[in-house]
Amino acid sequence: MERRDQFLPPYIATRFTARLLTILLLLTATISGLSAGFEISQIRLLSDAGSYTEVSEEVHWAHTFIRNTLLASRLVLYGAIAVAFIIWLHRCRINVRAFGCRRFCYPRIWAIIGFFVPLLNFFRPYQVVAEVWRASDPRAVETPVAWLTMPVSRYVLAWWVTLLASIFLEILAVGLVTHSGVTLEDLFAARSVGVLLGITSTSSAILAYLVVSGIEESQQEKWAIICQAEAEANATDPHRIDLAIEPEPPAITAKSIWRAHSADS
């Protein structure tokens, strides 16, 4: 890909943000898995108490406290992941322009506002991530539009579907915790939603890790290929002038002075 004589943004290293995202996503997957296990254990306890029509207030309060603690931990991690992910995605979107890629459907601003515009936030972030995935492919370096023929990994779509499902179940779980009663039927419903929430949240976090690591590795590899190609092109360019090296002044001799006078005459 020819990049010289173009006004392109600089390549931004995103390794630190990607590592931070990795830690947050692994923590989220761990807590979500623990939440699913906790909900399953509570369903078993409720099954053992099937001969009763109601449970005591103390048991209900203890279960609700543990469940709310796990829920609050996930919500805090979701907030941190959202901020880090938007920053990381916006920088990755800048990098694909630094690669020289063109003809994007969505400007880089959509990497930020796409998550906040109502209705559009159901699909626009996925579209932006899909474009970044394709444009980051290290095989697409021949032309600025070669990335348009690159495929999108199934991990990207799977991550987005599980993320939307986990958000829906999270809202439903909060509603059940807030408005559910103390009957066994209410508790069974809340625990069942909790199990599904833990599974989808764990799956979404793992898939998000695969998406982040995949784009990160692809961008590093593609940037290395571009830098190597530019270095080789500069080394073989006979008209290249290295501005970092100050040219030596010409030697002034009697012969050179005579030649200068002869040329002026």
Count up the helices: 7
Name the overall outline: elongated
Derived structural class: mainly alpha
Strand-residue proportion: under 5%
- What helical percentage do the residues reach? 55-70%
Low-confidence stretches: 257-265
The helix-strand sequence is: HHHHHHH
Number of domains: 1
Number of strands: 0
Mean pLDDT: 82
User: CA-to-CA gap between the ends?
Assistant: 49 Å
| Radius of gyration based on Cα positions | 29 Å
Largest sheet: none
Task: Describe this structure as you would to a colleague.
- The chain is an all-alpha fold and 265 residues long.
- It has one domain (15-264).
- Helix content is 69%, strand content 0%.
- It is built from seven helices and no strands.
- The chain has helices at 15-48, 57-98, 110-113, 124-135, 154-179, 184-236, 254-264.
- Helix 2 packs across helix 4.
- The protein is elongated, with a radius of gyration of 29 Å.
- The protein starts with 14 loop residues before the first helix and ends with a helix.
